[in-house]
Amino acid sequence: SYRLDEQIRNSILTTEPQWNSKNIDIQLDLEPVEIYADKDLMDQVWLNLITNAIKYSNENEIIQIGISIQSGQIKVAVRDYGIGIPKDELASVFGRFYKVDRSRNRSIDGNGLGLSIVKKILTIHKFSIDVESEEDVGSTFTVNIPINQ
Ligand code: ATP
Ligand code: MG
User: Which residue range or ranges hold the Histidine kinase domain (predicted)?
Assistant: First the structure.
């Protein structure tokens, strides 16, 4: 087991060049908590979610990352105030090579693989992920991790 809050802090350090160059402010609200998981694989999960939050945000925005404990689960929420995802595309974003409206994203690079990898890694762990989003308002990706007894 390892400290999830420390892992998230490290992911923030790793991605500093990306959020710094867009003048994005990262706000953290991290409950200290230990989890049982493959640390290297989970590094990939946080990197992909944080990279997306930065990529799909405008300059000078904030991104909020929180760890909370709710109804017997650890919840990690990555919230951005960026371009958002249309309602009818929400279910598709975890598919391989899926990108929302290619013309809208034309200037943003990526293969549409990050979230499918996130989903796969979480499924291996029996963790889950939810997404809430509104176009031009922002997106929140929430990872649910059961608390081991
Ligand atoms: P890659 O991660 O492979 O570099 P990608 O970011 O395009 O490329 P995913 O991370 O799988 O691919 O995301 C799939 C699509 O979901 C994105 O192309 C984008 O349209 C949409 N998306 C993902 N995260 C966000 C977000 N935080 N805000 C808005 N749209 C998002
Ligand atoms: Mg991505």
Answer: 1-149
